[in-house]
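Narrative summary of target 7.
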Amino acid sequence: MPNEETFRQLVEVAFDASLLSEEKRQPKFRIIFCSPNELADTYENIYFNRSIRLIQLDTGRTFEASELNRIAPAADLTRSLICVYFDEDKNFLQIWGLLDMGKNWWQFIQHETEGGTPPPNFLCIASTRPGELSFSLQGDILFSVNKGIMSPPSSDNPIWVGPISIFLAASRKSLYKQVLKELGTEKWYEGDDDYPLRYYNFFLERILYNVRNSAHGGTIIIVPEEFEFDDPRLTDRVRLKYTTKFDCAWDCLFRSLVNESRYYDLHSSLCDDEQECNTDVFKQYVRLATEKEHLDEELQDIAKCMAALTNVDGAVVMTTRFNVLGFSGEIKDVSPTLCNVVDALRPRREIPIETFGTRHRSAFRFCSNLEDSVAFIVSADGGVKAAKREGRDVLLWPDINRGAMGL
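Modeled conformation, tokenized:
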């Protein structure tokens, strides 16, 4: 960790750089505070490690906002870190290289892979939005600073706990039961029985990540699984320009979980030294492994396809079973008397809805008028808010991005 004065310089330069633009591009970056020797000690034979690539500069560059802004486009923050350390001989901070680690960590935190290599255990400072910085060690977020407010990582993501999680629970449980019935078992795995429930949440988070990454923003409204696009409860509240029935996600989730169970059961048995492996068993293993790869890719494509619908102005409406009922939805002027939403993390704090844009206000009013619904609102700058009515209040989760991992 840097000393106090060095830390102050790192923060000031990173903050200033986050407010600049280079050729009309908003910089997004991750810097890591370590020296070449410290990094080499962490990764033995770093130059020969195929999963890690280091681009070391012959001459270090002064660590200042304009220089950080210029080099940031060369270091895609989803895979690369800008290496900075304090040169004691020259008595200043300098940029000395770029560390490319590949995308597997980014894919892991978006639930696209089952594992990933985290950044090395040195202080990292990242910026994905103007004026916002996050501080982490080895991929674990320590805290974030936004608009002068320091926030710890949130441990109460509404997808996982609270009213929104309860609203999604019936469909999560339905997926779990459908998978166990197909497998002919009463439990998924001893000690990890809730994995199919988490898998459901992972897929929803993956959709939201893809919307966020589009940098366009959008609104996703989720209604109960029995809704159809012509249900009066829906048509009275939103005009869907494009109605549809895109429901392949549920089947893919189901097939993926069934395959994963069978694949890992067979994988475990093959790892047993006493288990004999004949040709038929090996063929079955190869078939399941190939199917697993295809299903992983299919789920990834479906999530991106669903997220892309938010690029058309208007709301995307889907059920809790991920059946897309329509998109480019114009929310009608329902609940015109709604004036405030309540901060779900600080229940006594009411926020006037006039402080939000049209997209947010429309989503709040929809939730106010239909208690059996949830809205996720993604800003163009990447923030993800969630809203749901509880009793007479519309609760707002201001930013569900701030988890324990991520950028």
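The chain has a mean pLDDT of 88.
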